[in-house]
Amino acid sequence: MKKKGFLLAEETLKMILAVIAIGFLAFFLTSLYFNSV
């Protein structure tokens, strides 16, 4: 039971990190695009 909860927390953490990474990448690309225009 505890192991399952730990796995779930790990998956959630990975998802949060992925969302942050994608958001940061999108922000970086957008700022880069607006700077070049």
Overview of this structure, please?
With 37 residues, this protein is an all-alpha fold. It has one domain. 95% of the residues lie in helices and 0% in strands. The protein is built from one helix and no strands. The longest helix is centred in the middle third of the chain and has 35 residues. The chain is rod-shaped, with a radius of gyration of 16 Å. The N and C termini lie far apart (54 Å). Keywords: Membrane, Transmembrane, Transmembrane helix.
Concise account of the structure shown:
This protein has one helix spanning 2-36. It is mainly α and 37 residues long. The chain crosses the membrane at residues 12-34.
What string gives the helices and strands in order? H
Strand elements, count: 0
Q: In terms of structural class, how would the helical and strand content be classed?
A: mainly alpha
Mean pLDDT: 92
Describe the oligomeric state of these chains in a short phrase.
single chain
Keywords: Membrane, Transmembrane, Transmembrane helix
Transmembrane segments: 12-34
Notable characteristics:
single chain; mainly alpha
